Structures are given as C-alpha cells and as structure tokens.
Amino acid sequence: MSPIAVKINNIPVKVEPGATILQAAEKVQVKIPTLCYHKDLIPWAACGMCVVKVAGSPKMLRACATPAEEGMSIITHDPEIVNVRRTVLELILSTHPNDCLQCARNGNCELQRLAAEFGIREMRYERRLRDLPQDCSTPSIVLNPEKCIMCGRCAIVCQQMQDVWALEFLGRGEGTRIAPAADVQLNDSPCIKCGQCSAHCPVGAIYEKSETQKVWDRLQEDDTYAVVQIAPAVRVALGEAFGYEPGTLLTGQIYSALRRLGFKAVFDTNFGADLTIMEEGSEFVQRFTESPENLPLITTCCPSWVDYLEKYFPDLIPSFSTAKSPHAMVGALAKTYYAEKMGVDPAKLFMVSIMPCTAKKYEIERCDDMFSSGHQDVDVSLTTRELARMIKSTGVDFANLPKEDADSVLGEYSGAGTIFGATGGVMEAALRTAHFLVTKQELDDASFTETRGLDGIKEGTVNFAGSEVRIAVAHGIANVETILNKVRAAKEKGEEPPYHFIEVMACRGGCVGGGGQPYFVNDEVRRKRAEGLYKDDLSAEKRCSHQNPHILRLYTEFLGEPLSKKSHELLHTHYQARPIYLR
After folding, report:
1. How buried is 217 (Cβ within 10 angstroms: 0-12 exposed, 13-18 middle, 19+ buried)?
2. Mind listing the pLDDT tens digit for each residue in 305-333?
C-alpha cells in the first residue's frame, strides 16, 4: 500500500498505512506529551494528554490511538490544546500524593517531568487523596495504589505481554483502582514477580522492593566479608543511569565502582552462566543421546518463568532442567569453593548479586536448595536501578572510573557467558557446548544467529554430526503457552516432542529487558543492549563455556565433573506444583 501523506503543524510527512498521528509527529521531530502510551503496548487513550486537532473537525482526537488518514492537517500545539493538557495534568495531580522527595521515581517520573514542562506551580483543584494501603507482600515489588494515575500500563503489560493476569482494574468511577486480581495480596495472586509492571509504570505506584540499606549496613560491618556479582545484562544497561547510550559495555567500570562501594571481592555472574551451560548442556546431551523419551529439556535460568511453570505447567516439571540460575550457582560456590580457597569463614561472607530482574529477590529464598552451601547462598539481590542509586549516593564519578578486572576465582567468563542476557543467548551458549559434547569437535563458527532477535517465538533445527536437534526460543510469558501446548499435545498423543531443547525468558528481549533494568525500555533499547552483549561475545578470547580454563579448573579442584554428586548438591534444584492463588 502507498504511504499516507499528512501535515503536522503544516510540515508535510508520509507514513505507512496504520501509523498513528503520534507516530507521524515523531517523524517530523514533534513531541506530543503522553502518560498512558508506551511503545510496548497497544494504545488505549486513557489519559487524554495527547489530544490534537485536525483541520475541518470540531473534535479533539487522541494522537496515540488515532490512525493518520490521507490529507489530514494536524495541529499538535495551540493555546486551547495546551490548556486542555494542562487541565488533565492538574486533575491527575489533585489525586496524587505530593511526596516526590521520598518517591522511588523522583528524578525520572513521567508525571513529574510533564508537570515541570508545563510549569505547574499551583493547584487549581481541591486535593482528593485516597487512603489506600501499600501492598508489600512479595519479596520483589511494592504496589502503592495511592500513587496510581489509572494509566493502565501495568494491567496491560501483565495481561497482554505476560499473560499472567495478576493485576486488573477494580471498582467503578472514582472508586476505581488497580489491584491484584480477586482483590487479594499480590503475593497470593498469580503474580510471578517479573517486575514488568514496575518497569512500565510511569510513576511510583509500582517499584522494586529496595534492599540497598541492608547492603550499606553490612558493608560497614568490620567482621563482614562482602562480595558481589553482576549479571550479563547489567553491564550494557547501567550506563543509561549516567547518560550513556543503551548497549554501552561498561564491565570494567562497574567492577571499579563496586570496589569503591566497599566490596572485598567482585565476581561475575557470566562465570556462573558458563557453569550453567556445563551442567545444563550435559543434561541435554545425556537426554538426547541416552534417554530421548525425557525430551524436551527446557531451560530454567529465569525465576519468573520458574514461578510460572510451577503454577501453570506443573505437568511438564520432568522436562525442566534442574540446573540453578547462574547467580545462584555463583552464590553457592562463593560460600564453599571461594571461601575454602581464601580461608574466609562462610558464615561471615555476605553475597550480593546485581541483577536486571526483580524476581531474583524472590528466587534467593525460593526453596531449601538456595541454602545449599549451609548458609543462604545469595544474601541480597539488587536490581540495576538500585545499584545506580548506590553509586550516585557515594559521589563516585562513574564516567571517569578506570577499568578493572573481576576476581579471577569466580570472575573469568567466555563469550557464551555474556550472551545469556539476551533472548536466545542461553540456547546459543548451550548449543555451542552441547555440539562439542556430542561431536567432540569445536565449531568453526560459534554463532547460532537463528536464536537471535525479538521475534516472540523462534524455531529452528541444528545439525549435530548428522543428528537433527529441534529448538525453540520464547520470550515474554504470553509467547510461552503456544510452545508448551505443542509439547503437551505431543505427550498426550504419545508422539515425539516437537522440540528437543527449549529456552524461555519471562521478559521481552530476555534479561536486557528485565523488570529491574533502567526505565524507558522499548524494542530499540532492547536491541541496543543485546548488541552490546554480542559485541562482548565476539571480542572474547574464548567463546564457548567448555573452553573457559577457570571452569575446567573448578571441576578439577572441586566439583569433579558435570552432573556429579557434588554438582547436584550445590548447583541443582527441584520444582513443585504451586497453586495459582494462595489461600
């Protein structure tokens, strides 16, 4: 179909059929203010901030949801439009708590930014605050309904992108509020703690449960041996909080910053990713070559996905890898292998993990397996956003920090370890090592590009020395059901599984788009963050987990071999059916 020609403030522009007025305005560098709109979500025109005029029409239209039509002449800003938008803002602010200084979104709140841009200094409307209690029931996120502006983003992302349906609108009129489905506590609802609601909320109505003060307190204790690890996706996202472009690789600077904060040792979760591949890859090869009736194998590095599977797909638990996630493995080894080598009392070792994920806060206490070292393996999990606030509060000049190295005992990693942060990365990393374990031959090209990209479901076939391996990658929980229903249907019919190996990530884009990452994520940001990880992979001296000499030494000195008794004690977990609603 031919492009549509319209005018934005008398500036001609052509857009593709179906493009909205908002998208047309963006093409000519005109910013129309929005609050309920987000590029990830279907526009539903709830807030009214984006109203515009079209020549020849007496109506004001909402730009986010109105398709551009041939010949439209659109006015995006005039005194009347600005006054309408200002009134919308003032009405929202009249029901919003005025405690910005104590708010988790202070400084990057979309409502705060618009109020500043419109120069709102006085309130023309009577304040009508609602006394609604906070929901702090989950270990991961906090719901503060007093600050909700009814934009609906959290409910849409929970229902449409994640297919979890833990949040919805309850009540009518002025009594309408966002709350967990069935009006239960969030921890008793279908919530999987992925944090996508918090990542998409424009204000401070939903945010990660902060544990930075606990970390500060322990860092100041003389008898605490504080250590830290950073996840793959953190290194390409943290810089956004300091003015860097998304995807800028800042691994060495982050190591340096963490030492400035007071940590005695800095590890890298990428090491744990390499270790996960050794265990999970060995699991796959064992099933593929010895017990194909136990296929498919489904990856379980994502704690939100694990929570979802235990609630919605408990019948497929036998198909799930028992390998722990990378940060859980590093936590267990820090309090055993590292503590033993360094002569540190594991009872005094305090392990902090910096994750792109709010669900990691839940995972570290998920079951007894998370205490496999004889202590809690990971004591605190902080999000990327929390680390950014910690660094800023110390006055550290992050942009000018020197690059440093991780502590080598649990810090060296291969290229395979770093791509864990992008959707398809776990699959690609596993295939590199699984191919070697099956064929005993190294790959000429370690890249499996068919697993990359932002398609919600990616399917393909890989050849292992004449053996066909059928793979699937799904990200965003809403895409998972399609894949797993195919597996269920094949099992019920007694047929071969449609796939041999499946990777699942709860968040769109994988961990680069995790619920604890810097705000304002969209697909462009996700792509840039993933590109940063793939560049790190390409520059690595070793690109396969089984080539990491520090991993090989770990097995020689401590674990024995993949899937050994000691590996199972420290590096593996179990799953159990859980009710969708707790009662």
Report:
1. exposed
2. 999 999 999 999 999 999 999 999 999 99
